[in-house]
Design goal:
Layout (H helix, E strand, L loop, with lengths): L1 H8 L3 H15 L6 H10 L4 H37 L3 H14 L2 H8 L4 H11 L3 H29 L5
Helix pairs in contact: 2-4, 3-4, 3-8, 4-7, 4-8, 5-6, 5-7, 6-8
């Protein structure tokens, strides 16, 4: 069964699924891309960096979509997303953190396991400059996915998976 799963994860379509999952996690669903990223890296350890990049790019595009939902459509769509996922408290916590720490709160929240939807919508509502939001989310997500992928690649090497 594990051999079959690794065979499926070795297919190129997995990259598309990873990008889509990371994008949707940014604003629409609650399913972290790591759930697909890490097994895929284990199946293809030599592509760990590329797979981390795919997850980062998808997540960043989803976060930008959520940012604009917060900036342009908070009253109608943004509030609905937060209520649907029960993220009102995360939204309030992030806005308070942002008030105290400035835009660096985006960098910290995007790198941790705080819901990206809440961070992105709040950043749009608060008015964090989009270029700074994009830069910080890109850096934080690249570090988060890159370090995770590197760790899984090292584990794959220790368990005898070909690099």
């Amino acid at each position: 069964m594990i051999a079959r799963l690794l065979e499926i994860l070795a297919r190129p379509a997995t990259e598309v699924a990873l990008a889509l999952l990371a994008f949707l996690d940014g604003f629409a669903i609650v399913f972290p891309p790591e759930f697909l990223l890490y097994p895929t890296v284990y199946a293809r350890p030599a592509q760990a960096g590329f797979l981390a990049f795919v997850a980062t790019a998808g997540s960043l595009l989803g976060a930008i979509a959520a940012y604009y939902i917060g900036q342009l459509m908070f009253e109608t769509f943004g509030q609905m997303i937060l209520e649907f996922y029960g993220m009102e408290d995360a939204f309030v916590a992030f806005t308070q953190s942002q008030a105290q720490n400035g835009a660096t709160a985006v960098l910290l929240a995007a790198g941790l396991f705080m819901p990206m939807k809440a961070v992105a919508v709040a950043s749009g509502v608060i008015g964090v400059p989009v270029w700074l939001f994009t830069l910080y989310v890109g850096i934080a997500r690249a570090i988060r996915f890159g370090l995770g992928a590197l760790l899984i690649r090292l584990i794959a090497g220790l368990t005898g998976r070909p690099a």
